[in-house]
Amino acid sequence: MKDSQVRIRIPIHHPKEHRQALFAEEDTGSIATLLQKNKLMQQQPDARGTLPTGVKPNRRTTAVPSAANSVDTALPIAGVAAHDTRAASPLPHLRPSAGRAPRWGSRRPWLPFAAMAGVLVLAMAVPALMAWPRQTAQPVPPSSRTAVPAAPSVTAKGETPVTRLPGVPPMPAVPAAPTRSVPVAAEPDVRVYVTSTGRTETLPLEQYIVGVVAAEMPPSFEGEALKAQAIAARTFIARRLLADDTSGAPAGADVTDTVKHQAYISKAKLTREWGHSGKSAELAKIQQAVRDTKDTIMVYEGKPITASFFSTSNGYTENSEDVWAKAVPYLRSVSSPWDKQLAPRYTETVTLSRQSVFDRLGLSRTAIAASTGGGSMPEIRILSKTEGHRIKKIEVGGSIFTGPEIRNKLGLRSAEFTWKAEGDRIAITTYGYGHGVGMSQWGANGMAKEGHTATQILLHYYTGISFAQASRILS
Question: Cβ–Cβ contacts within 10 Å for residue 401, how many?
């Protein structure tokens, strides 16, 4: 038998049983359904075994009027039912009669077992899903992160508020270190001529900076001032190494250990005189300042600057052209009020004989007598002052000198001074100490005491500079 054909089991009932079945149908409330069936049985099927248009088949076969009629009429109805089941006929199914529960498992005996299996699978899957590990959030790559503005810093309770200089933005103590993915050039060596031994000492750059800071700045200074000094010292030597400048140093050396370049204490001397004489803590403080600023230098337009510095200002720094006759854009005069408050030798008075003054300035007695009308005391007159409030031009005994010339010839601490004649002697009082160009060390310490960082100190004393890595510049 083909799959499309359906076997029909035709029940044959006794007339008495048939009447009982009809009465049972009537008792169950299916009279309307029975009348519809009788009407369908009277219809003759067409050649294809389909029902006339508008006739709805009844899928219930509980009651059959007679054996003969069931043979003639059941086949088309069964064929319609089979076609509807297999080919999804658009004819709708009639709902079961009232009072009789649908036997949903009679034609699909596997449905109860499938339902039970589905419940069991769901019962086993729920605990597994609950225990399934969650995927942790992966960090967002730097290129796709959205910049979040940093929250403004809040001064902790009890802290002294930091005094900010006009035009000096808050910055970190030192620039950020290079990332590990960026290769860093090897640390260069510095050749230092040690005057006490007459030998040239070769050592790594950072170790050289430790010796310079120890020689140039008191270790009792604030940590940020020591960091500023370390960056300035590193910038000075980086500029000379980049330009291959060995001027003023013996053959085979880059610099000397004197103030002609930068003062320097050798590693052996530091170990001997600092490490074993109760100054180990001060040495460690200097070493830490150098480590915190490692590889950091100051640049202007991408090149290391001339990082000049001096001890004590008179309240101001100098423009470079007033001292060295060359204007440098980052060596401009700025205020430095901290020196007068902190420096123990802010003022100093020296007394010189008239003859000593004549000799040091190269003045003859004849010239002095002519300028003073025959007197023995030379006439001293200030002609002009610099923007840094130091003497720019001065006339002594009829001759004109610059302030730095008088300072160097007479051995004065500063180019700002006053004088007073005391008999055959001249008392000269100076204000500040050093040439006055660049960073004032006592001023840097004063800024550090007020809470300024090393970079803020350097940005104040060196106009318009920025920071870079010495390894990249020198490579």
Answer: 20
